[in-house]
Design brief:
Number of domains of chain B: 2
Structural class of chain A: alpha/beta
Number of strands of chain A: 9
CATH superfamily of chain A: P-loop containing nucleotide triphosphate hydrolases
Largest interface: A-B, 31 and 35 residues
CATH architecture of the largest domain in chain B: 3-Layer(aba) Sandwich
Number of strands of chain B: 11
Helix content of chain B: 25-40%
Number of helices of chain B: 9
Radius of gyration of chain A: 18 Å
Distance between the termini of chain A: 34 Å
Number of domains of chain A: 1
Oligomer: heterodimer
Radius of gyration of chain B: 19 Å
Strand order of the largest sheet of chain B: 7-8-9-3-10-11
Strand content of chain B: 25-35%
Strand content of chain A: 25-35%
CATH class of the largest domain in chain B: Alpha Beta
Largest sheet of chain B: 6 strands, mixed
Shape of chain B: globular
Chain lengths: 231, 270
């Protein structure tokens, strides 16, 4: 479960202040998918950074029930280049001081569609889609309750994107984790999420269900603009 | 009028005493003034084909072709490995294609110098930046690439390539690192400049909707071969199983599917 109330973030740089987020409030029940959409610089990623405590909020309050794991946009820079896939997947367990069981890690690899052979490979030997599968596996080994997905498929081919989105849906059904998905692709967000938050310049434009978005029940002109832009 | 003709291009790489084909029997022609789109998944050979056209292929490849002509000039096999004049390319990630330790001003100056221009370079740089709709050229010219947004950096890249006055501009995934608002702006900027400067465009992308709305003709590539050539407006009604597969796996706003269909790649192994 995730709940934010009036979260604001102000960054200070060179004596100037910049309001990155102003009064963000939303609630995501356990096991649901919540999408955040907006242009670059609209504050989408900052929301994730607040949730994962990488950025401190200036005012407001938020509550996160459960453990978080991040899946980043660029699968090429998200994995340690000198570590084998096995070591990459063991790392969160080591950090959390869990016991490390190779069999369990191989099982998780298999749930994301990678065979045991990948255990001793290095990231550079994998394709973009395979690396993103490893990133997802890294969240699964520690049985994360909440996945923060920051543009998880925008660096991938459409065909690979379809595979990864299907995988995330299947895994969610099986493991019941919550997903917060940040993207600029309306097609992806309406396919994946029940509810969608539209962001602009650090503020909320509206929250609407993907059903409402599909039916065209849009109340804000800016949301309509985004819909019109997506071909 | 045809600007570029290529017949039966084959490229392969010898790896551990085995020849791995990279491009197989590629034939294409580009008409003057048209916008040609090239689509396909990663690894389908799109970029390799572009590197060949530009003459920047690595030297360790085996290549052969029947004919290759550009701008009314026949190009022989040894010449095909030299950088083509009158052709320029912009790449996916503008931040990595710009020199990180040079100001924008110096980089664009460099492009003009390559074209043999020596005079009034400062003035020309500002003019070039203005041309790609940068409102405050003086300020941007003094910046380093890391200080620019993705969209701004891509504009600078376009300004730099325009300085070379190419006849053919290749844009390899020019907008896939940009968000939708900026995507539209950059593509219409490319079209506008192509028209103004009498330049032909080749846009390479894995984004089928983008290609079908912004190009005249489309080439679909799969595993090193051209599998389909069609008019852009016909792309959405393609009957080829591979093209159809690529179109169907796109999630759309009006989607009610629970799962997305995925490509069965084994089907297309040549």
């Amino acid at each position: 479960m995730i709940s934010l109330k009036d979260i604001s973030v102000i960054f200070h740089k060179n004596g100037e202040s910049f309001q990155a987020l102003s009064k963000i409030s939303f609630h995501v029940p356990r096991g649901k998918s919540f999408g955040i959409i907006g242009e670059s610089g609209s504050g989408k990623t900052t929301i994730l950074n607040v949730l994962s405590k990488m950025v401190a909020s200036t005012s407001g309050s938020f509550k996160v029930l459960g453990s978080l794991q991040y899946v980043f946009q660029d699968p090429y820079s998200a994995l340690h280049p000198y570590y084998t896939i096995g070591k990459i997947l063991e790392e969160p367990l080591r950090i959390k001081k869990h016991s490390i069981d190779k069999k369990e890690i191989v099982r998780v690899l298999e749930t994301v569609g990678l065979s045991e052979d990948y255990y001793f490979r290095f990231p550079h030997q994998l394709s973009g889609g395979q690396r993103q599968r490893v990133s997802i596996a890294r969240a699964l080994v520690v049985q994360a309750d909440i996945l923060l997905l920051d543009e998880p498929t925008s660096a991938l081919d459409v065909s690979v994107q379809a595979e990864i989105l299907n995988l995330l849906k299947d895994l969610q059904e099986r493991h019941g984790f919550t997903m917060i998905l940040v993207t600029h692709d309306l097609g992806v967000v309406s396919f994946m999420c029940e509810e969608i938050l539209v962001m602009r310049q650090g503020s909320m434009v509206e929250i609407l269900s993907s059903e409402a978005l599909r039916k065209g029940a849009i109340t804000q002109a800016y949301t309509q603009e985004l819909v019109d832009l997506s071909f | 009028m045809t600007l570029l003709t290529l017949k039966s291009l084959n490229i392969s790489l010898s790896q551990r005493h085995r020849m791995v084909p990279i491009l197989r029997d590629i034939s294409l022609s580009v008409k003057k003034g048209e916008t040609l789109g090239i689509v396909g998944e990663s690894g389908s050979g799109k970029s390799m084909l572009m590197y060949f056209l530009l003459g920047v292929l690595p030297k360790n490849l085996e290549l052969s072709f029947e004919t290759f002509s550009f701008n009314n000039e026949n190009i022989s096999l040894p010449h095909s490995l030299m950088i083509r004049k009158d052709m320029a390319m912009i790449l996916q990630d503008p931040k990595t294609s710009l020199n990180p330790v040079m100001t924008i001003r110096d980089q664009i100056k460099e492009a003009f110098t390559l074209k043999g221009e020596r005079e009034n370079l400062d003035e020309k740089v500002l003019q070039a930046l203005k041309e790609v709709s940068i409102e405050d050229p003086e300020r941007i010219a003094g910046h380093y690439p890391f200080e620019l947004s993705g969209g701004m950096a891509q504009r600078v890249m376009i300004a730099m390539m325009l300085a070379l006055k190419p006849k053919l501009l290749i844009a390899d995934e020019p907008t896939s690192s940009l968000d939708m608002h900026i995507q539209k702006q950059i593509l219409s900027l490319l079209h506008e400049k192509a028209r103004q400067h009498d330049m032909t465009l080749v846009i390479v992308s894995h984004d089928l909707p983008l290609i079908s709305t912004h190009c005249d003709r489309v080439i679909v590539m799969c595993q090193g071969s051209i599998i389909e050539t069609c008019k852009a407006e016909d792309l959405n009604h393609s009957t080829h199983p591979y093209t159809k597969g690529l179109l169907e796996c796109l999630p759309s706003l009006h989607d009610r599917r629970k799962r997305l269909p995925v490509l069965k790649r084994e089907m297309f192994h040549a």
